[in-house]
Amino acid sequence: MDTDTSSLLGAAINVASHLDITDALRNFVDRAARLTGAKYAALGVLDARGDTTAFVQVGVTEEEVEVLGHPPRGQGLLGAIPVDGPLLLDDLTTHPDFGGFPPGHPPMYSFLGVPVRVREQVFGRLYLSEKPGGFSERDALDMMSLAEAAAVSIENSRLYTEARNRERWISVSQDITTTLLEGTEEEEALEMIAARLREVADADTALIILPSVGDAWACEIADGMGARDLLGLVFPPDGRAMTVLKEGAGMMVDSLTRLRTLRLKELAQFGAALYAPMMLRGEGRGVILLLRKIGAPEFDESDLAMAESVAGQAALALELAAARHAQDVASLLDERARIGRDLHDLAIQQLFATGMRIENARADMAGRGQAYLAGLLEDALSGVDEAVKQIRAIVHSLREPDTAVVLVERLRREASLARTSLGYAPSLIIDVDGTVIAGDDDESALVDTVDNRVDADIADDVVAVVREGMSNAARHAKAASVQVRVSVLGYGPTGRVVVDVEDDGAGVDPSVTRRSGLANLAARARRHGGTFAIGVNERGQGSLMSWQAPLT
Predict the structure, then answer these.
(1) Burial readout 216-232 (b: 16 or more C-beta within 10 A, e: otherwise)
(2) Tens of pLDDT along 64-75?
(3) DSSP H helix total and E strand total for the chain
(4) Calpha distance 430→436 (Å, rounded)
(5) Where is the Histidine kinase/HSP90-like ATPase domain (predicted)?
(6) What b/e string do you get for 291-309 counting C-beta neighbours within 10 Å, with b at 16 or more?
(7) Among 12, 254, 354, 491, which residue's beta carbon has the most beta carbons within 10 A?
């Protein structure tokens, strides 16, 4: 065996011995340069369109790479390399497809280009340049042989990578199952799913798209690059995400930035994308969208299959959360019924008995001519009667929680229900043009004013904002007090409704960028042409959430 043959065989064995695909490609390029004596060597990995998605090179300095900015796109002369043979040139600048060197590119003349084929498809192209005396036919044959060895190494690396990724996907699946069994809150479970999916899929960003206001679907969970800007993003009803949801089958896109029909400009910053529907019993509950930076490798079928499986588990997370919520509602209704019975059977009867004793005492005082004391007892008796009326109204409200009620009463109910999660009663203040609604005879007129000025659609959002604000304080703020103020100011398009939720807790954690509830409130504000903000309160201790919308 001659020296050249031995060197080629050794190089082929060395190239084929690498399981990590990055190491295999870099070793391939380095061996090709050594065998031929070329000063420059590079491998351009191609995507399905024939564009360069990865570029491995030796010979060009880091300073030159920085000046050039981006690797060759694989067009012109490089694109002229045959799919089944080498391209051998003494002077590449004389080739008809040569388009010139970009500024800062080192001069090159002798050239050898070889296709690298994997499964009968061109995986990439090997470029060699600047060999003293030029490249020979023997160099071309040797590089074709080395390319075949590299193809075997690339295929082995792919199989190894797929097996390793499958293990990672299975690990993620097990973690999700454990999280679901532990009864983790819906938002925390979905945040964990998004973070782990982004990691295991080598994605730069992971989004979870869920039902939002009305018929809209929006990004409720976001993790990774650009997460803050993508939270609350509303997806078009005829877009790819909704198509995946309706058809119940995932989809891969080689590059969002090249799509002609991309309706969301916020996604134009990404390349490869993978859509996986969150299906449960044939019904779509949401969509998981995995995104990679422009120029990153495309997703493959194994990624799609595993992502669809995990998306099903994410749908199950929503189902379990809904079941827990239904159980909580049932317990709440039972508690309402018990409180109603206790109020009716115990409190009212006790007040009746107390009222009778006060009446007897009042009559006795009046008979003795002690008019002043009799008057005081009369006032106390009126207070007892008013308390009985209020308790009866509360009992009626507890027994019929779903009947149509005015906005003021709905807000009071939310404040009452929040006691369970907060551990104390929040402060609720409702005012109309600065006049606070108090529990007196003038209340009914102001209550009617609130309902007349705030239409039903905005009223639903106001209730949702108050509910989420107190829920957020209970889950994240660790506050000892919460104050909610709802102000109705002015009339019609020039008027507005303002909701402020303030607490004395830990304040806003700047490291937490994923809170789907807050993103939902921002989306509700945008829908009405309003605003939403959350930050530190005026005292610098705790947080202040402010939401407002015009009265249209």
Answers:
(1) ebbbbbbbbbbbeebbb
(2) 777 777 677 767
(3) 14, 17
(4) 6
(5) 457-552
(6) bbeebbebbeeebbebbbe
(7) 12
Please enumerate, as own/partner, the contacts of 532-539 that have beta carbons within 8 Å and a separation of 24 or more: 534/508, 535/508, 536/507, 536/508, 537/502, 537/503, 537/504, 539/504
Alpha-carbon span 107 to 130, nearest angstrom: 9
Cross-strand partners of 55: 44
Structure tokens belonging to residue 141:
């044959």
Identical fold between 178-258+265-322 and 407-550? no
CATH 3.30.230.30 fits 178-258+265-322, yes or no: no
Contact of 522 with 232, CB cutoff 8 Å: yes
505: exposed, middle or buried (Cβ count in 10 Å: 0-12, 13-18, 19+): buried
CA angle 537, 538, 540 (to 5 degrees): 70
Helix 186-200 vs helix 301-342: crossing angle, to nearest 10: 170
Q: Report the distance separating Cα 386 and Cα 452, nearest Å.
A: 27
Tokens of 524: 């509700």
Q: What is the pTM of this model?
A: 0.48
3-state secondary structure of 479: coil
Report the chain (552 residues): mean pLDDT per 10 consecutive residues.
Answer: 43 48 76 87 75 78 76 77 87 86 86 82 84 89 82 70 70 69 67 85 90 78 88 87 89 84 86 89 85 85 82 72 56 61 64 76 81 80 73 61 69 79 82 82 77 86 87 73 92 90 72 55 84 80 88 81
Which among 83, 163, 87 has a CA at the least distance from the CA of 118? 83
Going from N- to C-terminal start, the domains of the chain cover 1-162, 178-258+265-322, 326-397, 407-550
Neighbours of 493 (CB within 10 A): 10
Domain covering 407-550: architecture: 2-Layer Sandwich (3.30)
Distance CA 382, CA 387 (A): 9
Ramachandran angles phi, psi of 508, nearest 5°: -80, 125
Q: What 8-state DSSP symbol labels residue 258?
A: G
Q: Which CATH architecture has domain 1-162?
A: 2-Layer Sandwich (3.30)
Give CA separation, 115 vs 37, 78, 100, 148, 409, in Å. 19, 10, 22, 10, 74
